[in-house]
Design a protein that fits this description.
Blueprint (H helix, E strand, L loop, with lengths): L1 H14 L88 E3 L18 E3 H16 L14 H6 L8 H7 L9 H13 L6 E3 L17 H6 L6 E3 L8 H9 L20 H5 L3 E4 L11 E7 L6 E4 L4 E3 L5 E11 L5 E12 L8 E7 L6 E3 L24 E8 L4 E7 L2 H8 L13 H4 L16 H4 L1 H8 L2 E3 L24 H13 L9 H5 L50 H6 L8 H4 L5 H4 L17 H12 L2 E2 L5 E2 L4 H23 L24 H4 L2 H5 L4 H7 L3 E5 L35 E4 L1 H14 L8 H9 L39 H13 L8 H12 L2 H4 L7 H11 L4 H13 L4 H11 L3 H4 L9 H9 L6 H5 L5 H24 L21
Parallel strand pairs: 7-15
Antiparallel strand pairs: 1-4, 2-3, 5-6, 6-9, 7-8, 9-10, 10-11, 11-12, 13-14, 16-17, 18-19
Helix pairs in contact: 2-5, 4-5, 13-18, 18-19, 22-34, 23-34, 25-34, 28-29, 29-34
């Protein structure tokens, strides 16, 4: 497929560019014949060909003919003919005419992006941080301490990697270059060459020079930008095209329409619509610049956005839905620029990457890719097609073989000092995480009614430094171009909605709330909406809809999160004490966005996490997928929290009409802003952690030592039909956490237990729909597994990202790994039984035995590099969640201790639960039995999370084919008999989870946690 794609690209370069040269002298490679749009010159002929194309009306002179007989192109009106090539004749002159006015006037935009003047050929650099991160992805799960599969372990320090040797005496780079590693895929030879080069250069802790391999540097490349165009570049391009010159490119439309997958995307950016930085050249092909009203912050990068709508199509506005429909085959380009100091001391910008989206009818079918610019900025190549200088023919791949993973590229940021910085290009999984929540359900962000209709500075929460004339008339321009149109006969900018009216009849309380919504529209809403990544990864966030029209305007100040903490608690500081020193913005939302600033302390947020510990989690910040922090966000949240007038003598209830409360709120907001900004500025740079959440394909078990190290006691166990039956039995386990609007018309359950009925009235205590039902497999997965592995089994969770950032551990995706692949669920189970297993066959339940082993000792990764990091992980990501997800018969401290002991071997929690069933140390079983006998359930039902409701299910699981005798109940916990009983109980629990994942998770059936009613019902 890739070979075919490359042959297509070669043919594409012959017919696409048509030798376009702008009036300003811009060229984008190629010298094919043909007739370009009006206003540009024709290209020169190829060797021995006929004359070049004719110039358009008002165009420049025709280009000279090629050698060996090519004739010169004819001049356009007002242009002269080109000279003939060797043995050829000159072109005919133009028809005369005066100087024609340029139909693309200089852009008036608040954001200039002047291009770099120097185009030096630089050494390709890499950093030890980047190198070690990629080694960690490829090798860490098996070999990074404490893991030691294959009797090889490393710590990851520069000194350790420099001197590491395996049992055979081979170095890691030798093993990579030999291709001996079964778990590695995609570029292991290139990684080996990089490691080899780093060692040869003395194992530096900073930068080192990459080996060039066979890659030839082409300083000319495809793009040569004349200085006058580069100097004039802004976020709207270098000039604003008149509507009359906007053209189309049907041939390119057809090529993109025919593409089916990433493999079909052009390898070189110059073979797309993006053939120039000259807005006039682009406009004549139908490619036009735009800028959103509320832009996404991207580590202070400048951006140029382009849109190309297919010929005859338009982005259509539906006035009833107040949404835009983006037609299939629309192409969107976004180029990112980084500021650099050039040798003359002037700061200009260099091109780093250009992202492309090709829309389709369904968002999930959209094509997307990223083109990375070379050091000379003369060409850009598709990430995933071989960028690594160490091995240009080795593609950049995820572990599962899919393109394109995170890519970090060091560059010279200050050419006067040689200072180097790194630029991180996000991989495909990060792209999907953000773009899944597209408002238009097209995979496209930044093209919405609010975003295209630019507003003046100071209106609608606009937060850009200024809004100049060509920005303000953007929508009129797009309408005139035909890029946007309405479903009605006429459409004007006045027909588009305004952000402040997006949630009528609710409105923003004040300017601070409007400003907060404006920032969220550009930076948060794509994740925090009902279809977004935030909700997909944590259902309890469903109520935090940050999109326009969502929950921001009038957000209830008494609302609480799933942890019971208030989102906006009243300040604890009196008026007399008010100052930047003692006013700490507070609450659930602020604590989340301020996490990277170091402003978290026990006193301020009531959590057992210190400032020092938080350094481990600076990577987990908002907005996501950036290497630094946008301090505007904590400032905006702090002002939002403080700006609401409250009556502090009455518990902090809102007082919107109280003049004194209003005045105090204004003072509080100013002080909160100052405190938030001070804290944030101290911790802006947080770094970038390479991510690869995919599973190796073809599948390789996470611990390749299973064949020799799987415990004998597990091999001796057997999964039976009794396990299969129990795993599907539904248990009523109390009520959901009361945060949802439970429908009252749900049918009565087949079995009505006494606790469900109010004995005084004879009616249900709560709607039948509020009862929390789960089978053992769902219960164990939701309570023990989903916090890291995710409710969808894809490891897309905050806890998984935290582990990657701290210990380097990669949480397994069940739906892609053991129970995958997704397109053939459970196919990988054959690894442990059948022809694929060979002499290592574990029997029909072999995969279940492997899962139990991995959850009882086979997973050797840690939850942090130090005990302190592990403690922080538990405090931040586990904490109360252990006993709130499901009614497990454990008290909080016992559950936390079980998690800490077992670490990644999570069935240790099941062992603790079954030991509680054995001893009933906390009397949960006794209280449950007493309530059954007496019919008095009041004490149990009064608990926020009644663990007693987990007793019946856990009794059945722990004792399945594992009788609990009186002798076992009273035996010493360390006795061999108790250990054997608990092992069988743990095997049962693991099999319950296995059956759920095999039969339900792979079909998309979610194990709904008790505290996530939002997955089934609307939030109140």
């Amino acid at each position: 497929m890739m070979g075919q794609g490359r042959r297509w690209v070669t043919m594409r370069s012959m017919v696409l560019l048509l030798g376009v040269v702008s009036i300003a002298g811009y060229s984008c490679g190629g010298d094919d014949t043909g007739e370009p749009p009006g206003g540009t010159s024709g290209g020169g002929a190829t060797s021995g060909g006929d004359g070049g194309g004719s110039g358009g009306t008002g165009g420049s002179s025709g280009v000279a003919g090629g050698d060996n007989g090519g004739g010169g192109g004819s001049g356009g009106t007002g242009g002269g003919g080109g000279t003939g090539g060797t043995g050829g004749t000159g072109g005919t002159g133009g028809d005369g005419g005066g100087t024609q006015p340029r139909l693309c006037t200089p852009a008036r935009s608040h954001e200039p992006i002047p291009q770099r003047h120097s185009a030096t050929v630089e050494d390709a650099l890499d950093t030890f941080s980047n190198l070690s991160g990629e080694i960690e992805i490829q090798c860490g799960n098996c070999h990074k301490a404490p893991a030691e599969q294959g009797d090889f372990s490393y710590t990851g320090t520069p000194e350790n990697l420099c001197n590491a040797r395996g049992k055979s005496g081979k170095t890691p780079d030798d093993v990579m270059l030999s291709g001996e590693m079964p778990y590695m895929i995609g570029g292991q030879e290139a990684l080996g060459r990089r490691l080899q080069a780093w060692i040869a250069q003395g194992c530096p802790t900073g930068t080192y020079v990459l080996p060039k391999g066979d890659m030839e540097v082409d300083p000319d490349g495809d793009f040569v930008t004349p200085r006058e165009i580069g100097d004039a570049l802004t976020e709207l391009g270098n000039c604003i095209p008149d509507a009359e010159i906007v053209g189309r490119d049907e041939e390119v439309d057809e090529r993109f329409a025919a593409m089916q997958s990433f493999e079909d995307l052009p390898v070189k950016l110059s073979e797309t619509d993006f053939v120039s930085l000259d807005a006039e050249v682009l406009a004549r092909r139908g490619t036009l610049a735009y800028a959103p009203t509320y832009p996404l912050w991207s580590d202070d990068a400048a951006k140029l956005r382009l849109v190309h709508v297919p010929a005859g199509q338009a982005i259509t506005y539906d006035p009833e839905a107040k949404k835009l429909r983006i037609p299939p085959n629309t192409r969107l380009y976004k180029t990112f620029f980084r500021a650099v100091v050039e040798p003359d001391g002037v700061t200009r910008y260099r091109k780093m990457e250009t992202r492309l989206i090709v829309t389709r009818e369904q968002a999930e079918d959209a094509l997307f890719g990223t083109y990375v610019w070379n050091a000379e900025e003369t060409s850009a190549k598709l990430l995933g097609t071989g960028l690594d200088p160490a091995s240009p023919d080795s593609r950049e791949l995820y572990l599962n073989g899919e393109p394109f993973p995170d890519y970090v590229r060091p560059y010279t940021a200050d050419e006067t000092t040689g200072a180097v910085q790194s630029y991180a290009v996000p991989g495909a999984t990060r792209c999907v995480a953000c773009h899944t929540g597209s408002e238009s359900e097209s995979f496209v962000l930044g093209i919405t009614p609010f975003q295209l209709h630019k507003r003046p500075k100071g209106e609608g929460g606009v937060y850009t430094p200024d809004v100049l004339a060509d920005e303000l008339n953007q929508l009129e321009r797009l309408l005139a171009y035909g890029v946007v149109r309405g479903t009605l006969a006429t459409l004007t900018p006045d027909d588009f909605p305004k952000l402040e009216d997006s949630a009528l009849p609710r409105r923003a309380r004040n300017a601070d709330e409007l400003n907060m919504q404006a920032y969220m529209a550009g930076n948060c809403a794509h994740c925090h909406n009902p279809r977004g990544y935030a909700v997909a990864s944590k259902a309890t966030l469903r109520g935090l809809d940050m999109s326009p029209g969502g929950s921001v305007f009038g957000f209830p100040m008494d609302a609480t999160g799933s942890d019971g903490r208030s989102y906006f608690p009243p300040t604890r500081v009196s008026v007399d004490e008010l100052s930047i020193q003692n006013l700490v913005p507070n609450g659930g939302i602020y604590s989340r966005v301020v996490l990277p600033t170091g402003a978290w302390t026990l006193r301020e947020f009531g959590l057992p996490v210190s400032n020092e510990e938080l350094g481990s989690f600076f990577i987990l910040h908002m907005p996501m997928h950036t290497a630094s922090v946008d301090c505007r966000l904590p400032v905006l949240v702090a002002r939002w929290w403080a700006s609401v007038p409250r009556d502090y003598e009455r518990g902090g209830q809102e007082a919107p009409e109280d003049p004194e409360a209003i005045e105090l709120a204004m003072r509080l907001a100013d002080a909160a802003e100052a405190r938030a900004l001070r804290d944030c500025e101290q911790h802006r740079d947080i770094g970038w952690v390479l991510e690869d959440t995919t599973e190796r394909y073809p599948y390789v078990p996470r611990n390749i030592d299973w064949k020799t190290k799987l415990d004998d006691w597990i091999r001796a166990e057997e999964m039976t039909s009794e396990h299969e039956a129990l795993a599907k039995k539904a248990y009523a386990q109390g009520y959901f956490a009361p945060r949802c609007a439970f429908p009252g018309d749900s049918p009565e359950p087949e079995t009505v237990e006494p606790w469900m009925i109010n004995q005084g009235t004879g009616r249900p205590r709560q709607p039948w729909s509020a009862i929390y039902w789960s089978n053992p497999g769902e219960h164990i997965y939701a309570g023990i597994c989903s916090n890291c592995h995710g409710i969808y089994g894809d490891a897309q969770t905050g806890a998984a990202r935290a582990l990657r950032a701290t210990s380097g551990a990669r949480v397994a995706s069940f739906v892609d790994g053991l129970f995958g692949p997704r397109w053939a669920p459970n196919e990988n189970l054959a690894t442990f039984h059948g022809p694929d297993a060979g002499e290592d066959d574990l029997g029909p339940d072999g995969a279940a035995k492997y899962l139990v082993w991995m959850a009882t000792g086979g997973t050797t990764v840690s939850f942090g590099r130090t005990p302190e990091e592990e403690r922080t992980f538990f405090n931040v990501f586990v904490n109360n969640r252990i006993v709130t997800a499901v009614p497990i018969p454990l008290d909080l401290e016992t559950a936390k201790a079980a998690f800490r002991r077992s670490r990644a071997n999570m069935l240790g929690v099941a062992r603790a639960a079954c030991d509680e069933i054995r001893t009933d140390a906390h009397r949960y079983g006794a209280r449950y039995d007493a309530a059954v006998a007496s019919g008095n359930w009041s004490s149990i039902l009064s608990s926020v999370v009644p663990p007693e409701f987990g007793v019946p299910m856990w009794r059945d699981v722990c004792t399945l084919r594992n009788p609990l005798t009186d002798e076992l109940r009273t035996a010493d916990a360390s006795s061999p008999e108790v250990d054997a009983w608990l092992r069988r109980a743990v095997f049962n629990a693991g099999v319950m989870a296995y059956i759920y994942m095999r039969d339900e998770l792979t079909k998309g059936v979610i194990a709904v946690p008790r505290d996530a009613c939002e997955l089934k019902f609307p939030r109140q």
